Structure formats: C-alpha cells, structure tokens
C-alpha cells in the first residue's frame, strides 16, 4: 500500500495489506489490549511508516489474581492468569486468607483484582479501601464485586426440578456440602421450583459439614432415612463422582429404585477425569474464562459503581439416570 497524496491513510487497504481484519486494526488504533503482541507491533510499524504517528505505547496494567484452597477455582483461575499474561499484563498472585497483608499491598498497586477465592463482602471492601479505583471481578460465586461471573445457578436448578417432576418424582434427597460455595443458591432454586410444581413433594437435605467425608454423610442418611427417596440430586459434580467411585461399590442393585442427577460436569483432561454419566445441568467452564478475559480487557465505563452479573448458559443433558415413575 502506498501513502496517499493527501497524507490520509485508508485503514481498510492497510488492514488488507497486513492480512488482518479492519476491526483488529481499529483495536490497535484505539489501544485495546486484546491484540496479540506480534500483531500490535506489525500494525504500529505499518501505521508509522504511512504517517500515522499518534499511537502511543499502552500503559502497563497490573492485575491481581487472588486464590484459595479450592481446586476448581484455582485451576481455571490459573488458566485465566496465563492467558492475561500473554496479553502483556503484569499479573500477581495472592491468597487473602493466608497472607492478608500481602493481598492488601498488591491491591493497592493494581488496577484490576480477579477473585478465584470465594471472597466475602468484607474482603472486597478492604481492597477498595486501600485502592478506591480497584476494578474487581469474581469467578463463580455471588459477590459485591464490580463484575461477577457464574453459571446460571437459579435457572439450572429450576431445570433440574422440572426434570424430576416430569419423570414423576415426589421424594428427592439433595446433597449440600459446605465446601461448595454456590450450594445454597442452587438449592433455593431447586426447592422453590419443586414446591411450585408439587407443593406436597418431599425434599430431604443431606448436609455435609466441613471436615466430614461425603461417603460417611451418605451412609448416615441412607441408614437412617424413614422413607427412601426416589431421586438424589448432587449440587456439584465432584460429589457425584465420589458417590459413584466410593459409595456405590459393594452395593449391587442400589440404583435400581434410585434416580441420580447432578449439577455440572466440569471435566478438563488436565484438571479432573470424571467417570459418571448421570443426567445433569451442564455448562462450559471455559466460558467463564472467556467472559473474564473480556471484562479484564474491556473495562466497562461506569459513572458510578453498579455491579454487573453475567450468567453462563446452562442446559439439561439427559443420559437416562433419572427414571420415569408411573
């Protein structure tokens, strides 16, 4: 492409000559961070050669990633951190529970904080106290952060209730573990929908407190139940996996009159190999990462702090583990 006589640049022709889309070129011109380093360098060089000298180097943005003892969030949060680092952001890792002082020091220096750590309101407020301009994003759980990303837990639980109801189930046990941060959100959605569809249905809670083993809690419930449920609903896939691999062996025929369903199946070959194939509410964990990357690289312009909650799509997947009851 040759420079025009009037000194103006035809961006469309320039993009074509570089083998990129016009939108990619505009993202470079507008200093959007979501462009690969190599592509950005090529575009800037071409712009400069054709007389477009107003482009300035992008400000180095610091991003804090806060982790905790939670395998799922740590794994996918680390993938996100790796992706963001490749976009020329400077990333730091903290754990606000184990090293609170280090967490607050990093929060004071960073522009963005990504919580893969189930933060409570006090934690986010303490970070904002040391840095009022800190832009906060939370993965998976509800929070008072600027942006919260999670699967649509309420809709997913409603779909599960409708599935059980459509198959004739009126007595369902629901497993809730205190290790699972979104258990109550999912349980409330399921309970409300079941009671709306069938006010006389029975819903038992199998509560697993911290320090207890899933197998022991299930043993205790089934040995003491005055009436056996026809359905068992796990609010997280990891507990359905334990049910299959640790509870069921040695119990032939146990599933003959029991239907199983779970919420999610977050299989990733590098994270966890799952063996169950129950009916489930499914979502794609990496969708959370895509949206998180979008919100990090495209910070919403807000005149006042107004939280954004983006729900990841969920759907019902039937495999036949929920049986029809006449």
Assigned CATH superfamily of the largest domain: Response regulator
Percent of residues in beta strands? 15-25%
Radius of gyration (Å): 25 Å
CATH fold-level label of the largest domain: Rossmann fold
Kindly give the count of domains: 3
Low-confidence stretches: 1-6
Number of helices, counting only DSSP H or I runs of 4 residues or more: 11
Sketch the topology as an H/E string, one letter per element: HHHEHEHEHEEHEHEHEHEEHEE
Report how far the terminal alpha carbons are from each other.
Answer: 74 Å
Helix content: 25-40%
Number-wise, the strands total 12
Strand order of the largest sheet: 2-1-3-4-5-11
CATH class of the largest domain: Alpha Beta
> What is the approximate shape?
elongated
CATH architecture of the largest domain: 3-Layer(aba) Sandwich
- What is the arithmetic mean of pLDDT? 89
Could you say which structural class the secondary elements and strand pairing correspond to?
alpha/beta
Largest sheet: 6 strands, parallel
Q: What is this structure, in a nutshell?
A:
With about 325 residues, the protein is an alpha/beta fold. Helices cover about 40% and strands about 20% of the residues. It is built from eleven helices and twelve strands.
